[in-house]
Amino acid sequence: MFSIQVVSHILSKIAITKKQTIDKPKNLKLLNTVPFERGFHFYTELGKYTGITACSTVEFAEKLQIVPIQSVTFHFQRQDFQKWFKNTIGDEGLATRIDQIMAQPSDEYLRKDLFKTVNHRITELQ
Is 14 helix (H, G, I), strand (E, B) or coil? Predict the structure, then answer.
C-alpha cells in the first residue's frame, strides 16, 4: 500500500502534466495558418492591394518587414491588425498589445514597434 503522501505526490504530478498538455496546444493553435482568403491582405489604401498576404502570425511578422510603409500606416490607423488577430487568428492578447502601441514620430519606428510586439508574442507561444 502507498502512503497518503506518496499518492498525493503522484496525483499532483499527474495534474501538472495534464495542465501543461492542455495549455500548450491552445497556444500553438494561435500560430496556425489560415486559408489564403482569410489571410491578412496588405493594402496601401482602399482598392490598392500590395500583392502581399500573411496567413499566420509568423508570416505576418515576416511580411510586416517588407510591405510598403504606407501599408503599415494605412492598416494601423484603421486598426485592421488588431481586428485580424482577434477575429481571424483568435489572439485577443496580441490584439490588445497592438492597441497599446502609440503613433510614432516616424512610420519606420511604428513598423519596428509592431514587429517587436508580434515577434515577442510568437516567442511566447512557441
Answer: helix
Angle of the 107-125 helix axis to the 92-99 helix axis, nearest 10: 150
Query: CA angle 15-19-24, nearest 5°?
Result: 155
Residues of the chain above pLDDT 90, percent = 70
List Cα–Cα distances, 118 to 12, 55, 73, 94, 102, in angstroms.
35, 14, 16, 7, 15
Domain ranges of the chain: 36-125
Q: For residue 24, give Cα distances in angstroms to 73, 81, 90.
A: 34, 24, 15
**Residue 101: HSE in the Cβ half-sphere, 13 Å Cα cutoff:** 25
Single out the residue of 116, 60, 121, 47 nearest to residue 88, CA to CA: 60
C-alpha Rg value of the chain to the nearest Å: 20
pTM for this entry: 0.77
Residue-wise pLDDT for 17-67, tens only, equals 343 333 444 566 888 999 999 999 999 999 999 999 999 999 999 999 999
